[in-house]
Amino acid sequence: MTTDVIDRVTFDANGLLPAIIQQWDTREVLMLGYMNAEALRRTLSEGRVTFWSRSRQEFWRKGDTSGNIQLVRGAALDCDGDTILVTVDQHGPACHTGAHACFDVDPLTPVVLDA
User: Fold this and answer.
1) How far is the CA of 106 from the CAs of 52, 101, 114, in angstroms?
2) Into how many domains does the chain fold?
3) Residue 32: CATH number of its domain
4) Cut 0.90: pTM above it
């Protein structure tokens, strides 16, 4: 099954797939990471989120050093197959800064229009 999924993915020129990580019950977006085919295979088959570190050029399984693990609860490819949404049960902060979510760190104030 995992091979079938990987065959449907459109990886970028660097062989990577953006992975949006979302808390499964609250639907809060926690972070964005990148997966190559092997990281995706590990995530889908092992039940823990694994990324490819672009800066370190190595795999990293979320929580192995921090203890802030992400247990997979679901996953879905977008309509183009070039982004994955992984729903997780997050234990501890998701952001490497210690913030609950990476998007808590620098909130912006865009203009909001009414419909």
Assistant:
1) 24, 11, 24
2) 1
3) 3.10.20.810
4) yes
Structural domain of 48? 2-104
Nearest to 11 by CA among 45, 36, 44: 36
Residue at 39: amino acid letter? A
Q: How many CA atoms lie within 13 A of 42 on its CB side?
A: 16
Contacts of 20 (CB under 8 A, 6+ apart): 29, 32, 83, 84, 85, 86
Tens of pLDDT, residues 23-57:
999 999 999 999 999 999 999 999 999 999 999 99
CA distances from 100 to 22, 23, 42, 70, 106 (A): 12, 11, 24, 13, 12
CB 87 within 8 A of CB 75: yes
